[in-house]
Fold this sequence. Notes:
2 domains, seven-stranded mixed sheet, three-stranded antiparallel sheet, 32% strand, elongated
Amino acid sequence: MRPHSTRVTQPTPAERVQSILQAAQSMTVVSDGSYGEVRRLVGAGAMGHIHLHAPADDAPAAPHGRLPVRLELTDIAPTAVRDRLRARVTLTGLLAAPYQDESPQSTCMQFGQALLEDGQGRHFISLDELWAATPDPIAGSEADMLTHLVDSHRELVPLLVRLVQPRPTRGMLRAVPLAMDRYGVVLRLEYPTRHLDVRLPFATPVSDIDQAGPQVRGLLAAARRASHRNRLLT
Length: 234
């Protein structure tokens, strides 16, 4: 559990997994010797097709035994950054019957394990942690918001870079928005042979999608103030 006295500026691994499951447009299902791509997840996300439940000793047995299943999802940056793969999520568990993509009802999956792999390492998440994680209100709109920022307001990205501390070193080729969540915006600073991801936290976490715009404008206002102070000091 996070300390109440500490300001939270980034999502937990469980929150990251929740957001990826919510915003996923496709996933890979590996079960019973088959390997299939499931698409058309827009709107429902992965959990609109499969719902998770805890293992139970008294759960009714399937006619032919439960089938091991593995769900694989990738989190790809919506903007044209270098190395667009942001994270991988793997869920494992058991199915009572073979998975059917065309079924109008979601498939019941007995939860086994959740694994998040990202730039911070490997994180194992329990079902209780997943259930306790609040869905990110920005997750479903993140791609549209980031691409709109890059396509229609590209001149604002260098302004946001002024908030990066410590200041970027010489040789930076460009900065590109990599991610946005309820806690802030992440920029990827690209150099000739490497890149660096930096988080610009919102003043307060977003609890509703309508709060995202004002929080981004708050970052831009802070960047303009920082630029003004720098000019006074020179």
